Amino acid sequence: MKRTQTDLDRLRSGRTELENHYIDELAAGRLSRREFIRRGSTIGLSAPALAAILAACGSSSTKPSKTTAAPTAKRGGTLRVAQQTPAGAINPLTIDDAGGLCMLQQTGEFLALDNNMKLQLQPMLATSWKPNSDASVWTFTLRSGVTFSDGSPMTADDVVYTFQQLADPKNASNALSTFQGILAAAGVQKVDSSTVAFHLETPVGSFPYLISSDNYNAIIVKNGTDFSKWQSTFLGTGPFKLQSYTQNLGATFVPNPSYWGTKPLLTSTEFKFYSSQQPQILALEGGDVDAIVQLVPYGAESLLHSTSYRIIKLVSSNHRELSMRTDMAPFTDPRVRQAVAYTLNRPEMVSALLYGYGGVANDYPFFPRFASTDTSVPQRTQNIAKAKQLLTAAGHPKGFSAPLYTEVYQEIPELAQVIKADAAKAGITINLNILPQSEYYGKATFGNSDWLDGEMSLVDYGDRGVPTVFLEAPLTSSGPWNAARFKNKTYDGLVKQFVAAIDLQTQRKLAGRIETLLLQETPIIIPYWINGVTASTPSVGGLNPTSISQMFLGQAYKS
């Protein structure tokens, strides 16, 4: 059916300027169905409204890739899950590792859920949200009838307390990687018992993503919670509550009888902790567990190439990031940093380490499927001759040597070996220091972390629905994850403009300038993007994973 101007006028009637902007972008074909859902849900368009607009604009549907049909749902049973051992205490303020954040959301919930499976931002503890005209104030309406697992009601006071603690620099919160320069503690304000307003330090068009499950520290805790003692109770509003937790071994959760939503199908969930991926795979193959939270293809061939397991694949912005200290020789010279980047054979890495479950990246944190990405910027490719020329011009004709610090996590040790071998082709000697996560991350603060203090450092970054965290935390002058010590006023200004922009044309224009600047400066190298992969036995259904090692099990089951 052909769309008419009358249809568009009807769709636009009574909507905000921002909502109409996205409708117009969809109608003109400049916004895909996927990105319209993402952006529409971000600014508070309801699911029925999104569906109606998509139908009227004649948009076809798409679904994430998934193999093997799910079994018939059944109530009861214990789901046994393998995951990475948490690197430290389960503290909602300070968690920064995959194993720890998966534990957080077993009992904790967020205001909104970035649902990879449905490709949109969904209400969770908030039922709706709206920005003001310039996206500098966002108002959230909270779900009624929600209680913590101890029976106490959740109110605006709990939400305000949670975010004030997360945004307070005195607490050394890991969430400052998201909130620094955007949300101050004083900006979190109670409107009434069921409404909270976030008054931002700068406009942010994608702010709901920053308080969603993308910001894995942002589970809502009870007003007055001592975060250092949270591990003893795991007190939250989610479908499960803690039964037992044993450091370095595992945890067991049982249904929360006072849960506000659909009650869990499982009798319990049992998490088993492992130091690396390979024993998790062996445990699944040996029948000791039913599912693995998240894995990478390298070393998982026996699962990926077998019809005996269910595989869920999520295209994601997961990536690895190699930083080089721009305040330490020889990396003070951008030509040296560029030289390292030109040694890498990215397609070969994707083939050898990911078996095609991912794609090459271009040394800036704009995932190709972000609607704001400028995909016209040329891809950097391996060029050993150019790398040698750059080194000679920088005064290192015979190359140089430098230490590289990284972590024992998934395929990263193997990636470090490949980087070392590629760099050697240009005369660069890299000395590897591959450490346990607890040692590598340390206190995750400058002066107390091999991750943030190493001359070269290789770290993992989980999926996000928008690039804000990727652009700010590791690369702005005051970014709390700025392992490269990159300080560039032009970059800082461009990122501030990008984050504040709400229309796609402006975002893409700024993205192109940011991408070009980062290729010129090269404070970081991103070899590839990685699909999120989850594996289970055929008897398991209802898994709802994200690409940052979260696993929502409220409607999971075994048959």
Describe the 3D structure:
- This protein is 30% helix and 22% strand.
- It has 559 residues and is of the alpha+beta class.
- The strands form 5 sheets. Strands 1, 8, 9, 10, 11, 12, 13, 14, 15, 16, 17 and 18 form a 12-stranded mixed β-sheet that branches. A 4-stranded antiparallel β-sheet has the order 4-5-7-6, with helices on one face. It has a two-stranded antiparallel sheet with strand order 2-3.
- The chain starts with a helix and ends with a strand.
- Residues 60-67 have low confidence and may be disordered.
Low-confidence stretches: 60-67
Radius of gyration: 23 Å
- The CATH architecture assignment of the largest domain turns out to be 3-Layer(aba) Sandwich
In CATH, the homologous superfamily of the largest domain goes by the name Periplasmic binding protein-like II
From the spread of the alpha carbons, the general shape counts as globular
The top-level CATH class of the largest domain is: Alpha Beta
Q: Name the average pLDDT.
A: 91
Tally of DSSP helical segments: 19
- Give a quick account of the main beta sheet: strands, pairing sense, barrel closure: 12 strands, mixed
Distance between the termini: 43 Å
Q: Into how many domains do the coordinates divide?
A: 3
Strand content: 15-25%
Secondary-structure class: alpha+beta
CATH fold assignment of the largest domain: D-Maltodextrin-Binding Protein, domain 2
